[in-house]
Amino acid sequence: MLCSVIIPLYNKAPYIEAALASVLAQTHAQWEVVVVDDGSTDAGAQRVLACSDARVRLVRQPNGGVSRARNRGIAEARGELICFLDADDWYGPVYLETMVRMAQQYRAGAFFACGFERIPDGSPAVLHYQGAAPRETQLLDDFFERRRRVGPFFCTNSVAVRRTDLLPLQPCFPEGESAGEDQDLWFRLAERLKLGFAPEKLVAYRVDVAGSLCAVEAVDVLAPTFTRLEQRALCWPASDPMRASALRLVSDARVSVARAALARGRRGAALAGLRRAASGGMSRHWWVTLALCCVLPTALVIKWQMWREKNIRP
Asked: Which of 72, 177, 209, 311 sits 20 to 30 Å CA-CA off 163?
């Protein structure tokens, strides 16, 4: 099975060679890499061209953002299974083999993912998982409930989708958005397909641990992907169990926005957000946030939120 690995590239010259090397080291040998240079101004594209493996292709376009680059890569891909890799991240050696094995196990009606490891920037490009391709996988019936309960349990680097399931959704990634653009696609796929999941952490996601507060600032407003999910879910039959779990997921996202408002000292906005979130159900997350609004001073809310972000990451 031919796998197409889509790598959007924008000014990541110091990292792109390691990303490519991780694909070259895969135990599954049937692959191609489509690197979409999104108007880089550094030497990243030249480093891609220096790769002697004919399976690596470079496509150039004017700068248009990561979503447009990924969509271009999907359009250029030739493989049956499409995977994604950010230019500053990397795969463990059995990632593609695991995705292909799941695609062969679940012949139709599924897309695929594995767990991921958060790696602090500057750390060696090594994953803790060093085993063979895992054989124990799960087929999740209710993606939205799993996502609501445990948070993001996979990342863009860990997803694989059949090309035939992606093309009808083009443009797969919403262009011009800077938050949740990848989740938008996973939500739309989950409405149509089940998720085959290998919990082992087979890919890396590089993070800057010094900027932990950015997680608070990043949810200043509800990402459009959640608004669109809510609009679609409200049109599903009331008997569909995914309708309730999708709406609860949106409600939890609104609670996170309320916490961000509270961390900035906007208690009125936080309480207004909680009132709107209550329509999806008053979860433990909701009640804790209400207590924070009523009891803690802003400085303590910020410290608590940063501690929580650090300690709940998968």
From this structure: 177
Reported as a pLDDT band with limits 50, 70 and 90, residue 259 is confident
Average pLDDT over residues 182-204: 97
Indicate if 27 and 53 belong to the same structural domain. yes
Q: Which domain holds residue 17?
A: 3-207
Q: In this structure, what token pair is assigned to residue 244?
A: 């309730």
Question: 9-49: per-residue pLDDT in tens?
Answer: 999 999 999 999 999 999 999 999 999 999 999 999 999 99
Contact between residue 55 and residue 32 where contact means Cβ atoms under 8 Å apart: yes
Shared domain check, 226 and 177: no
Residue 314 one-letter amino acid: P
Q: Count CB neighbours of 67 within 10 A.
A: 22
List the alpha helices (DSSP H) in the chain: 13-24, 44-49, 66-76, 95-105, 143-150, 163-166, 181-190, 214-217, 224-233, 241-263, 267-277, 284-295, 298-311
Cis omega before residue 152 (within 30°)? no
Q: Is the dihedral of CA 93, 95, 100, 101 positive or negative?
A: positive
- Give the pLDDT band (50/70/90) at residue 210: very low
237 and 201 in a common domain: no
